[in-house]
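Example record

The entry below shows one chain as it appears in the dataset: sequence first, then structure tokens.
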Amino acid sequence: MTDSSFSQSASAQLPRMIKDPKEIAKRFAQGALFTAVDTETTGLRPEQERLLEIGAVQFDCTGVQRTFSVLINPGKQIPAVITSITGITDELVSSCAPASEVLPPFLQFIASSIIIGHNIQFDAAFLCAELRRAGLAPLTNRTADTVLLSRAAYPQLSSHRLQSLASALAIPVYEAHRAADDARVCMELFLLCLQKLNLAPHSQTQQQLLL
């Protein structure tokens, strides 16, 4: 899920973002580890709402390394509008672990990788809010936003929403608005943007990276 509605205080505590496409591409070509992350939540405000799901795909210039996917018990009723968008129900998460138990293995998974997301500030704000509630240290990973990359690579497109971009760029979508599939789509978008900007490693194609 992506949205820009989070407070100024939450924004001030977010990890630093790498905005320059050339710097992002340089780190990618040099072998830096990236993790595409997506979250589903019970609403739009990190201070009031909770995480429902985290999905992540970790990759570098040699291809996908591993994946992470977990449902989370938010400790509150899921609004009907969220269930209608994501398909995640109260019953589906009733026996799942809370965020305080899910976050430590997620932090181990991402390690020091660069986190990318589509409107990454939304996902990072929710992750940081849940980390604070759990008494855990805040995220320190550098981040990059595929919204900014897509606008640089495809300025002619009228919509830069993730699903709109997937449709326009023929990225397959198997389960829209679920964190694991959205994270994969985000990774594929990232690779396409680097190629479109002529910043991708010349030795490999997007298809080879996805194998």
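Notes for this example: Confidence is low (pLDDT under 50) at residues 3-10. The domain at 8-204 is CATH 3.30.420.10 (Nucleotidyltransferase; domain 5).
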